[in-house]
Amino acid sequence: MYTRKLHPGSEFPAIQVKRSDGEALTLGKPQGEHDWQLVVVYRGKHCPICTKFLNKLESYREHFSAQGIDLVAVSADDEQQLTQHRESLEVNFPLAYGLTLEQMQSLGLFISTPRSEKETDHDFPEPAFFIVNGEGKIQIQEIANAPFVRPDLDTLIGGIEFIRKPDNDYPIRGTRDYD
Questions:
Q1: Is the separation of the CB atoms in 149 and 141 below 8 Å?
Q2: Among 62, 85, 88, 155, which one is most buried in terms of CB atoms within 10 A?
Q3: To the nearest whole percent, how much of the chain has pLDDT over 70?
Q4: HEC string of the chain?
Q5: Cβ neighbours, 10 Å, residue 99
Q6: 61 near 40, Cβ under 8 Å?
Q7: Among positive and negative, which fits the CA dihedral 24, 110, 6, 161?
Q8: What is the dihedral angle through the alpha carbons of 144, 17, 10, 127, rounded to the nearest 10 degrees?
């Protein structure tokens, strides 16, 4: 099976999900005073690596915010699974649930089937990160096929600081077409 990948510089698709408080949220649309957004796709409640990473990500929330970037994390879990997961999470950024198979495919995610009912009861996405710029375009992305691949957050913050400085005039990378 092959996936269709989104390309750097392309429009981030308007995907509607629900936040843990029941409110609708459009991925890729920055909230508040932020003009960029980091969309974190995680596997779900069943993944202890995701739990650990989301809790670590919280400690970087202010660094992202200082760069004008808000955070949102989303999974294919249902509302009940997210509610249960929140008990082991210590995050203050929005968590969303209900990512559908069609939405996962539109993001070009790798999708896994649970190994057993003990893991979870639905297909789920493998981790991905999308930094959506102020024009609604994908500035940076990372799509993994296993839970063990996550960006180094210190390096990511440093890169974003560099990109966001107007004097650096840093373009979206990886946009060259194959000839």
A1: no
A2: 85
A3: 98
A4: CCCCCCCCCCECCCEEEEECCCCEEEECCCCCCCCEEEEEECCCCCCHHHHHHHHHHHCCHHHHHHCCEEEEEECCCCHHHHHHHHCCCCCCCCEEECCCHHHHHHCCCCEECCCCCCCCCCCEECCEEEEECCCCEEEEEEECCCCCCCCCHHHHHHHHHHHHCHHHCCCCCCCCCCC
A5: 22
A6: no
A7: positive
A8: -10
What are the domain boundaries of the chain?
15-168
Which residue type is seen at 139?
Q
**Mind listing the pLDDT tens digit for each residue in 24-70?**
999 999 998 999 999 999 999 999 999 999 999 999 999 999 999 99
CATH class assigned to 15-168: alpha beta
What's the pLDDT at 20? 87
